[in-house]
């Protein structure tokens, strides 16, 4: 616990914080309370066995998982590997960061006495060591090193309607990407392509300038790593170029499909994806209440000139809203940001409107500003009796928010305007991880009134405590510089938060206790703030917590529910195993099940991956174990309702993507976007399964074929032999210089019944293997296994020989089997099934180009073919990898249970399948993220 004391009463020259112990014990250093052990960290790419990272003899507490150890060692330890200056102990890492914070706190007068500074140091060490909270990644990268002391992960830039400003935008984004962070900005000040320049010419419009920024982002690897830069581009809904902006990524997605079918490598990170534009940014539309009311009423809406503000065009609001939903349905962009809601909760409107967000949409504040983040592990506050320890949580928030504010005193920033704004407004972003695990452990369904009440109460307590501490800090070291000008607005927003807290409807003794303490925190915070002001213009966000969530051994990230009930766990000494999430037994105990019942249910889940028909589990408890994916997945509106429950208690917004099934319609997307506005969200993005081509291992293609057999499958399979005399065809082929023949025999009713492949010299091992393979496929076909099932499994397999073919319909093959089954699909499958598999003839691809782009001149497909043929050494990587047959991450493990692939990218560092973390993805193997860390 910390409190403020007046210097005149204590006899000190200045006043400061008196810090009381929360987690630590007087006279015992936190490091001496735990058992430490030596470990070897060797991280490999499981696809090729290469070693990505190796450091032996590192020191960690015995209760840290292997995964957390690996990620911290490889990501956060500083110094050249293999040299004496390389950090080798968690103690060194924590000391490097914490001592920097404490030294700055002392220098800037935060503490009443040296003893208070020492207690503060010990408390931070204890919480970091015990995985109670973590700072965001830039803190671990930079603080206490010779590098610039950048502590922020989130940045918002600004661009004006001048060429100098636009070119400066490119430069500033490049600096931020180089440092490993992401940035967002609003392009709406740039005049539209429907307006004139002062010289009399027509303006280019913001979409045109997006091309240059996109190319820059694709060129500069973020933080010197292999992942792409993270950026957000926002445009106001009343901008005259809004329709062009909405359709940019959807049109590029169509282009990706054409190029992919022509044999180009269009995977995320593929060698040819760089030829497609606008792929390095998330796009969002800023919608106003005026526009949403026009959509609701079916009225027209005016698009306004950027230079004069006059309406230059009127459009049907419903039609534009439909185009937004259609584009999001096709490629997941654009998301929406609700402008009036955002600015209604703005603490500093006198200093400027909030026009944009960071790439993950959780940080929303002034242009040219930044936010440093920290997240608490909620499971660390769940007591053995099932109660959430609200008092301990509040006292921990005090310590963390104090440390976060101190960091601004010594922090460096990528540009001077960002540094100036951040020092004047001191924006912070405290948040949490493991909410999904906490709700399950306490017996709450994620999509339930009780679950939302507990989540809202905890979020309210966190932000209320953070602002109360901010008000106390204002009495010690002064309010933020912009407070005086915005005092009325800031106090109004505090009252809005407090009023929302009073409206929480509680259902359980847990959320009752948390909400009661939250009420006291808001009341005390407003009382102290009225006298002192506040130290920080904003206090909280809900970030993805990707890498730091793994550092804290969290089961769930940010506000997300559990991904699935089974997970992938690395073991000490190497190897791995599948385990049922440890939250499940705790949840069953909270629901009143006995040890024998729990053991049986857990065993069932381990085998099946879900709880349906688990022995002894009551059906009314199924919902407690609903997850983001799996047999019982949470409905899209369940995610939206959870976001709406906690949004009134967040200074910023929530990094979260609402996942929708592939079967969702455009109308479903419209409903989600409209309900998000009605429920008071600040930002919302959706992702429809399998909507993007440039995504390794996209879901559903293989599963669909298997789910729609041409024949009725009997309970006992019956072999349908071919008649003595049957139609057949023989195809000669060449793949990467290897020549062969494919003989295919059919039933008289036109169904494929057998294949024989001749490849290699007679009597050779290769020839024998192909003969055996042909017989096994033929027997499978005769037992009723659909051809499309085999196609989905064998297309895109990669091994030599591979490369150019002599088949005009299949120009490039990644292996002989890839070619054979694509050829069989073209010859024996109807168009509808081939379309699901992404396999088309050359004529069909040309027809698609003509239909999608108007005339063949828009996309020179023959030119593409010519360029392919002219470069036979081009590596061919198709859109989908082979189906996972061995799990290397929780996502891949889930795929094995579901029998279908999940829409998530492969980690470019270690090759494992990433898992969702807010609106980004995180790799469980090495901690890499697809967005800002």
TrEMBL record:
Q: Which cofactor does it need?
A: adenosylcob(III)alamin
List residues traversing the bilayer: none
Q: Where is the TSCPD domain?
A: 723-827
Protein EC: 1.17.4.1
Q: Which GO terms describe its molecular function?
A: ribonucleoside-diphosphate reductase activity, thioredoxin disulfide as acceptor
The enzyme class is: oxidoreductase
The record's listing under InterPro entries reads: RdRp_reductase_class-2 (IPR050862), RNR_2_N (IPR013678), RNR_lg_C (IPR000788), RNR_NrdJ/NrdZ (IPR013344), TSCPD_dom (IPR024434)
Which transformation does this protein catalyse, written as a reaction? Answer: a 2'-deoxyribonucleoside 5'-diphosphate + [thioredoxin]-disulfide + H2O = a ribonucleoside 5'-diphosphate + [thioredoxin]-dithiol
Q: Which family is annotated?
A: Belongs to the ribonucleoside diphosphate reductase class-2 family.
Known function: Catalyzes the reduction of ribonucleotides to deoxyribonucleotides. May function to provide a pool of deoxyribonucleotide precursors for DNA repair during oxygen limitation and/or for immediate growth after restoration of oxygen.
Q: What protein name does the entry list?
A: Vitamin B12-dependent ribonucleotide reductase
Biological source species: Actinophytocola gossypii
